[in-house]
Fold this sequence. Notes:
By secondary structure, the chain is an alpha+beta fold. The protein is elongated, with a radius of gyration of 19 Å. The longest helix has 13 residues, at 54-66. It is 39% helix and 17% strand.
Amino acid sequence: xxxxxxxxxxxxxxxxxxxxxxxxxxxxQQIIRLLQDDGRATYDEIGQKLxxxxxxxxxxxxxxRDAGMLRIVAVVDPVVADYESDAMLGIKSAxxxxxxxxxxxxxxxxxxVYVMWVSGRFDLxxxxxxxxxxxxxxxLNDHIHGQPDxxxxxxxxxxxxxxxxxxxxxxxx
Length: 173
């Protein structure tokens, strides 16, 4: 049995989500913005900033989490962590292979932190972050080069970092 596509999961989830658990609800959006700024903020702190009770915040967060619309996780800033090696891979799927199939195959690997289906000369942009340079080499050799579902890949390694807001966005409208 094949895994559902991301679009199928999102569509099914959106159809089953009550308004109070929806990320499109105004209060939920405000709660999410505050959690993006400080994921350890208490329900009461968030409630005070939004003019609602801590219980209301707790209930909204619980509903969004139960509906699969919200996860609270820790994110390591790659600039601060100073990983030894990272690269953006531009991947073109092999003829007859859906980009989602390649994305699903790469998804479980801990070094893969970002996968986006794109238009243009590539089908996927995949960001790989590694603790050691040899880990990147091993990942490329074992999971990218010579794989029958990949027609070609362009490996773009980081030379410098000017801005990185990935998963660390602040004041998102």
